[in-house]
Amino acid sequence: MKQIDFDQKYSPIWKSFEADIDNHNGRKAKLDPAFPENYRKICNHLSLARQRHYSEELIDYLNQLVMAGHHALYKQDNRIKLGYIGFALNVFIFTLRKYSKAVWLSTALFIMPGLLMGLACFYDETIIYSLMSPSDVAEFESMYDPSLDKIGRERGSDTDLMMFGYYIKNNIGIAFRTFAGGIFFGLGSVFFLCFNGLYIGAVAGRLTSIGYGVTFYPFVVGHGAFELTAIVFSGAAGLIIGYALINPGQQSRLTALKNAARDAVKIMYGAAFMLLIAAFLEAFWSSSTSLPVELKYAVGAGLWFFVIWLCFLSPLGRQREPN
Q1: Dihedral angle sign, alpha carbons of residues 239, 245, 246, 249
Q2: What integer best gives the mean pLDDT of the chain?
């Protein structure tokens, strides 16, 4: 096909496509529904023009259309993705507030044993051995020794990226067990919440008593805002399932379980994302000893405020849950 025939046959598509882009960029109007199909056609036209050695002017013109079309589609795709993220965040927060009693009960089951065990281990150095073996205690003490270049779990590898993967596996494993324990009429979730609270409290009390709080608290304050709250939320999701099994109401237990699980999973999606953030912070931020302690505390306080505000005080989730 000669170039003049090629121009006459396809120029209406090019002009319409170009006008659609101009309208979209200038007036922020939505792209025509046929835009993606026209974009595909113009990409093909550009390929044909190059294969047939049409003029450089035509090739440049089609190439500009393709780049502008790709940019318009990319921006639109980003807006769609942001819309999905906003929707998922709103559903997560709405569900947390819908089951606020389960969240507060989970918080109490996690914090109270931790506080009591922390105080006990601070004042009596032998109590921690009722929960951990001497080798485990020695490992934790070596992890938070102020003389270390890196704070936290001993590296099997020298790379923070390896630790990022380890923290993801470890944190999500803890959260999933806490959630899945709800299937045993909530007793499993109660056990894992209390056990994790006791464990963390014992470590905190022990390290504080021997003077390692100067490394322990700056380490945990940042990622703890996401990690500890995610564990609490996972426990709340398990308690939701457990309560549905204990008190199904007018429904069968299977139906009540299905309905409760539908909401519990919404919480778990959010908790899993929080744990990814926590793992990233723990591997690349918390373990660094080159950062000033004051900065770690300031950032940690800001992250705690942000998480609490977002989940319980922000405008998100106040409306009825989107369908």
Answers
A1: positive
A2: 86
Give the DSSP letter of residue 147. Answer: T
Q: Which residues pair with 150 in a beta bridge?
A: 288
Per the CB < 8 A criterion, the answer to whether 282 and 160 are in contact is: no
CB 106 within 8 A of CB 232: yes
Neighbours of 298 (CB within 10 A): 13
Does position 134 have pLDDT exceeding 60, yes or no? yes
pLDDT above 70: residue 157:
no
Instruction: Specify the range with the lowest mean pLDDT, choosing from 30-34, 111-115, 316-320.
Output: 316-320
Measured between alpha carbons, how far is residue 237 from residues 214, 222, 228, 318 in Å?
34, 24, 14, 19
Report the length, in residues, of the chain: 323
> Any residues with CB less than 8 A from the CB of 186 and at least 6 apart, and which?
238, 239, 241, 242, 243, 245, 246
pLDDT at residue 318, as a whole number: 66
SS3 for 31? Answer: coil
Instruction: Please identify which residue in the block is written with the tokens 């703890």.
Output: 224
Q: How far apart are CA 258 and CA 55, in angstroms?
A: 64
Residue written as token pair 């440049």: 60
Residue that wins the pLDDT comparison between 34 and 276:
276
| Contact in structure between 93 and 311 (CB atoms under 8 Å) | yes
Max intra-chain CA distance, the chain? 92
- Structure tokens given for 309: 């505000």
Best CA proximity match to 141, nearest among 84, 216, 86: 216
- pLDDT at 75 > cutoff 60: yes
